[in-house]
Amino acid sequence: MAGMQSIFFPARLRPPLLRLFGARIGRNVRIAQKVFIGQPGHLTIDNDVVINVGAFIDCSAPVYLGEKVRVGYQGMIVTGSHTAENSVYRRREGNHVRRPVRVERGCWIQSRSMIGPGVTMAEGCTLLAYGVLLDTTVPNGEYCGIPASRKRDLSTIDDCKWTNVQGALAELRTTPSQITTAVMH
Fold it and tell me: Quick one: average pLDDT of 11-33?
C-alpha cells in the first residue's frame, strides 16, 4: 500500500490497487497522492467520490463513503481508539475500541477535519475546516468546531432543478421517435 502515497503512482491506478486488497469501490473515484488507507478490506466507496491529498482513513472498522462525498486536504476518518484506564497509566495495550464510520451521499469533509469512531455523517452535511465530528449528524447541516456542532441548515433547492433536468434528459433518451414525430407536425 506504500504505492498509494507516492506522487509517482498514477491516480488512475489507485482504485484498482485498493480493489486488489479487498476494497469495494464504485465508478469515477479519484484518490490523490499521499492518501493513507489502512485495512482496505473494510472500505466501501460509492460512485463519484474524491479524496484529496494527504487524507487519512484508518479503516480498523468498516468505513462507508457515499455517492459524491468529498474528503478535503488532510481530512481524517478515524475508526479506532482506546479506552482510558483507572490508573495513571491511562492506556494499556490491547484495549482497542473499533467502531464503523458512515459518510452519506453528498457530504463534504473540509481540509484538516476529523470524523471520530462510530459517527454517521448524514446526507448532505458539511464539516468545516479543522472541525472534529464526534457525534452523528442530522441531514443537510453545516457543522464546525471542536467538538463540532450544527451551525446552520443547508439548502437543497438545487436538488429539485438537477433531478428535473436529469429526468427530462432520461425521458428524451428513451422516447426519440415521439420527439421526431412531434417536431414533424
Answer: 92
pTM confidence score: 0.80
Superfamily name and number for 2-154: Hexapeptide repeat proteins (2.160.10.10)
CA distances from 8 to 2, 32, 104 (A): 11, 11, 31
For 72, phi and psi rounded to 5 degrees? -75, 175
Task: Please give the residue that has the higher pLDDT: either 114 or 156.
Answer: 114
Helix or strand or coil: residue 57?
strand
Q: Give the chain's largest Cα–Cα span.
A: 86
Q: What is the DSSP letter of 5?
A: G
Long-range interactions of 138-144: CB distance < 8 A, separation 24+: 139/104
In the chain, where are the structural domains located? Answer: 2-154, 155-185
CB 158 within 8 A of CB 164: no
8-12, 92-96, 129-133, 141-145: range with lowest mean pLDDT: 92-96
State pLDDT tens for residues 94-125. Answer: 778 899 999 999 999 999 999 999 999 999 99
User: Rounded distance, CA 147 to CA 134, Å?
Assistant: 6
d(C-alpha 102, C-alpha 44), whole Å? 10
112: left (phi over 0), alpha (psi -120 to 50) or beta: left
